[in-house]
Amino acid sequence: MLRKANWRSFAILALSALLPACGGGAPPARPSGPPAEITKAQAVRAATIPLTPPPPVAAESAIVIDPVSGRVLFAKNADTERPIASTQKLLTALVVMDTGNIDKIVTISSDDTLCEPTKLYLKPGETHSRRDLLRVLMVKSANDVGRALARDVGGSQEGFAEMMNRKAASLGMRHSHFMNPHGLPADNQYSTARDISIAARAAWRSQTIRSFTALQSTTFRHSDGRVKTLTNTNKLLKRVPYCDGLKTGTTNAAGRCLVSSGTLGNRSAIVVVLKSNSANVWDDSEKLLRWSLERPGAEQ
């Protein structure tokens, strides 16, 4: 039988095996006060659970975070500045939400329609609520919708970009700069996997935004009565049963990008992959999401 002191040391060392692998993240803070009581069953279980290394991914940049604590679980080139395509629409959504009036009616202008390639084909003079436009922006990633929201909220595309940069700075996104609301290529527009994970965490914590990003499909009614059924661009919503968001993005410069989130049991995770490709973007994201939430000991 172990002496009490030796048993306590063994238990504390054994429980350290439960800690997930961290790449690029700061170590967890040391708790203050006396250590929590450790049971014999917990210690034995911890001593027998093998550490599971993160899976290899093809994406050039990636990060996995716990959205509750903000802790980084895995990182790969997380601070490399690069285009992030439509994943920056998460920041657009946050700026729109900050107005506090998402039921305001927006009248579409001809300037809103001047974008390609993904569009909802809004017509000048149509009227829609910010809420409906934001829902479609998160599900279908329509660039004309992004321009309409930006003009309505910021007065112009340039004015809204300034709001995006102020919001990014307030969140602690230190290596980002935005020029438009939709992520189409623009000079001096960039972010990082770490920064976009910060925006994603804020979006995930918004009940309204997350309710939109979790939709597998939605309908949209044009002012002339036409109704469109729109399928979410995030295929992980169908591949992983506990996936609940968040946003896709694709341009030639950015490659295939995906910010995904999921909750399993009492644990949640956000996964960002940037500069992946069509053959790997879904597998990269699924592997990291499953690793973060399904590996042995993750429920702890």
Features:
300 residues, alpha+beta, Beta-lactamase, 5-stranded antiparallel beta sheet, two-stranded antiparallel sheet, 18% strand, globular, disordered N terminus, serine-type D-Ala-D-Ala carboxypeptidase activity, Beta-lactam/transpept-like, D-alanyl-D-alanine carboxypeptidase
Provide structural commentary.
The active site is at 86 (acyl-ester intermediate), 89 (proton acceptor), 141. This protein has 300 residues and is an alpha+beta fold. It has one domain: Beta-lactamase (3-Layer(aba) Sandwich), CATH 3.40.710. 35% of the residues lie in helices and 18% in strands. The chain contains ten helices and nine strands. It has helices spanning 4-15, 40-48, 89-98, 130-140, 143-154, 157-171, 193-204, 207-213, 236-239, 281-294, and strands at 61-65, 72-76, 105-107, 127-129, 217-221, 227-231, 243-251, 255-264, 267-276. The strands form three sheets. A five-stranded antiparallel beta sheet has the order 2-1-9-8-7, sandwiched between helices. The longest helix is centred in the middle third of the chain and has 15 residues, at 157-171. It is globular. Residues 1-50 have low confidence and may be disordered.
